[in-house]
Amino acid sequence: MELAFDNITLRDYVLSDVEDEVRWTNVETEWFRSDTPWMELEPVDGNELRADMSAIINSMPEDAIRWRFEIEVDGRHIGLVSSYYLDSNFEYTPWESIDQRKNAPQNNSIRGLGIEICEMVYWGKGIGTRALTMLMDYYRSFGENHFLIETWSGNHRMLGCARKLGFCEVRRTKGAHVIDGTEVDDLVLEKRF
Question: What confidence score (pLDDT) does residue 91 get?
Fold first, then answer.
């Protein structure tokens, strides 16, 4: 599956993406420090990732609502957008409990959105805003109209993107993490259509 707007394409994962993901996880990790600097990024083995992704690709039904798309700009793979479910208390809802087919009945979970632009030369160019807009439009085509973004108070690029998209802060957990000796807050931002 592929979604395209201007020079940005959101597409399904292909096995050639493994090399980029290995590089982003093992070598060029600045994107991770920007996203979740209090966590440790686990190295990935290319062969294991290739086997895992091959199994996912081969088992995905054609009518599945996609939870992840790779981002391409002018034909270059630069990162991904993804989603997950949270309940009304902003707690994780397991995938197994939700029917992911396009014709499945609506559930009571809220779609959480994530984005990783792993190629730093593409930061600050509005690509994240356009990619998340495309992702929300995709889910809205299935009747979803409630979205969340989880981030932290020092992720200024994500906060700017979320505000451009009309997200508003609905929860702040003060001092949730300590980064380089400074306390930072966890944030949940919400948008309803």
Answer: 84
In degrees to the nearest 10, what's the CA dihedral of 169, 171, 173, 174?
50
DSSP state of 13: -
How many CA atoms are closer than 13 Å to the CA of 136, on its beta-carbon side?
24
Helix (H) or strand (E) holding 189: strand 182-192
Q: Determine contact, residues 147/190, Cβ cutoff 8 Å.
A: yes
Direct distance between the N- and C-terminal alpha carbons of the chain, in angstroms, rounded to an integer: 24
The one-letter amino acid code at 44 reads V
pLDDT per position as a tens digit, 38-61:
999 999 998 999 899 888 888 888
Q: Is the dihedral of CA 16, 22, 25, 31 positive or negative?
A: negative
173 bridge partner residues: 186
Q: Count Cβ atoms below 10 Å from residue 82 Cβ, excluding itself.
A: 16
pTM beyond 0.85: the answer is: yes
Q: Which amino acid is at 127?
A: I
Do β-strands 110-117 and 146-152 pair in parallel, antiparallel, or remain unpaired? parallel
CA distance 156 to 162: 10
